[in-house]
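Q: Could you fold this chain for me?
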Amino acid sequence: MSGHSHWAGIKHKKEITDKKRAKVFSKSLKLISAAAHGEPNPDFNPRLRTAVAKAREVGVPTDTIERAIKRAADPSEKLEELLFEAYGPGGAAIIVEVLSDNRNRAVQEIKTILRDHGGKWAESGSVQWAFEAADGGRAAKFPQEIPDKEERQKLANLLEALEENDDVQNVYTNIILS
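A: Sure. Below is the predicted structure, expressed as structure tokens.
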């Protein structure tokens, strides 16, 4: 009867939820550190105030948020905001917002994900025209659908792989995936 203990089942479920929670916490704390870089007081920094509010929504503890703000004052901890543009399967326009402490590593990771999932790196400015600012993010100006089911699945796999990367904050596409 090995492997059938009640605790083993709980342990495996808890491990999965803890990994998901850790990824969300990590992304939230990186965002806070980047926002706090210039002004560490949320009363005078609206971007930091928004990042803290989003972190509290997902349940990040207050002391952890405060440590992330203090860490932003450390000159060795410099996070860089990067914006990558790409085309995915079916001609999908993709914008990837990245927050990383190492630009070269982030570029190579994103390029590898794109290559492995049928995407193509795009020059700066070649995709941004298809998006407009909306609700603190981006929205497609001209949303489209991909009629081919296989291409839609390839795009969904690409977007999922991008979002799983620890440095990726947001991924936007002009394709409707419903």
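A (continued): Helices lie at 6-35, 46-57, 62-72, 103-116, 149-164.
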